[in-house]
Design brief:
By secondary structure, this protein is of the alpha+beta class. The protein folds into 2 domains: 69 residues; 124 residues, Ribosomal protein S6/Translation elongation factor EF1B (Alpha-Beta Plaits, 2-Layer Sandwich). It has 5 helices and 4 strands. Strands 1-2-4-3 form a 4-stranded antiparallel beta sheet. The protein is rod-shaped, with a radius of gyration of 39 Å.
């Protein structure tokens, strides 16, 4: 009888140990393992995001270095978007395009817009001083003259493809018929035009 009691007690103790082990496994080990997998996934995701950002930063720095070291690119940018208004240079280009396309320029009016101030970044420091992005202003030219329809069309095309940025914002055309005389017939292909052209410049 005692032997059977001992055997039963051993079985009960073994069952309790197994049950306790199951409780510990379910209540502690499984949640901990699940949390560990979640944290591991977050770490891998953040590591991948950091690697992507580092790659982008490296590419941007490489582009900036190339831009700053390439003098020809800098000269091209300066011609397209000069430092300062350079009104005389813009007028020379407008008159040159007009002359090459057979358009006459009878008058021009110039108006300027003040450079828009740019607030410094929150970080401040040397990055602001070395920034290649400068505030820009605009100069508006109202050009009056005459020419044939084809010549005016070529004039507009020349403005749009000029190395300095010219943005045509308004066009007005009116027939400019020359009165017939004894030796000269009326020219119905002549037009008087008024064109508003806006160009841009960087703050000095």
């Amino acid at each position: 009888m005692k032997q059977e009691s001992k055997r039963l007690s051993s079985i009960i103790i073994a069952a309790l140990i197994v049950a306790a082990a199951l409780v510990v496994y379910i209540e502690f080990i499984v949640p901990t393992y699940t949390n560990l997998e979640t944290v591991k996934g977050q770490v891998e995701s953040e590591a991948a995001a950091y690697a992507n950002e580092a790659t982008l930063v490296s590419q941007v720095k490489s582009l900036l270095t190339t831009y700053q070291s390439d003098s020809s690119s800098s000269q091209t940018v300066a011609m397209a978007l000069p430092v300062g208004r350079d009104i005389s240079g813009a007028l020379a280009q407008i008159y040159g395009i007009a002359s090459n396309t057979g358009v006459t320029v009878s008058a021009t009016a110039v108006s300027t817009q003040a450079v828009q101030a740019v607030a410094p970044s929150s970080a401040g420091g040397e990055d602001d001083a070395g920034s290649i992005i400068k505030p820009t202003g605009t100069v508006s030219f109202q050009v009056n003259g005459s020419g044939s329809y084809e010549a005016i069309k070529n004039f507009l095309q020349g403005l749009s493809t000029n190395i300095r940025i010219f943005n045509v914002t308004a066009i007005s055309l009116q027939p400019n018929v020359i009165s017939a005389t004894k030796t000269q017939a009326a020219n119905s292909d002549m037009f008087a035009y008024t064109i508003t052209v806006v160009t841009y410049y960087q703050a000095p």
